[in-house]
Amino acid sequence: NLLMVLLEITALACIIIWAIDRTQMADLYIAILLFVVVILTCTETFLQESKGDAILKKFQAMIPENASVIRGGTMMPISTAEIVRGDIVRLKLGDKVPADCRVIFQQAMKVDQSMITGESKPVTVRT
User: Fold this and answer.
1) pLDDT confidence band for 121 (50 / 70 / 90)
2) Is the pTM of this model over 0.85?
3) Three-state SS string across the chain, please?
């Protein structure tokens, strides 16, 4: 982060100024304070990024590995990574939705979006 580098350079400059004139103790105090701020900020940034990575891994675990797809008039099981625009995804009771989909036909379909939106009840899907 550029701001952290600038703060470190400023702290080093304060130490150099203090080394030249040791009567200026304020420069030493400012340098120490800047180093503490940089260390705390970097630690907090690291912790936040690690939490974000953990959440992303949980979302990736929610994506199913395979899906039933109608492609070219034939239903076939394929990897969710191979789903392309124009494929018709067939969902059964309990299936996880493998991709962004437009619902063509459904019978009283409800989707549990609580992990994404925080809604406590399943959402009714409309065509």
Assistant:
1) confident
2) no
3) CHHHHHHHHHHHHHHHHHHHCCCCHHHHHHHHHHHHHHHHHHHHHHHHHHHHHHHHHHHHHHCCCEEEEEECCEEEEEEHHHCCCCCEEECCCCCCCCCCCCCCCCCCCEECCHHHHCCCCCEECCC
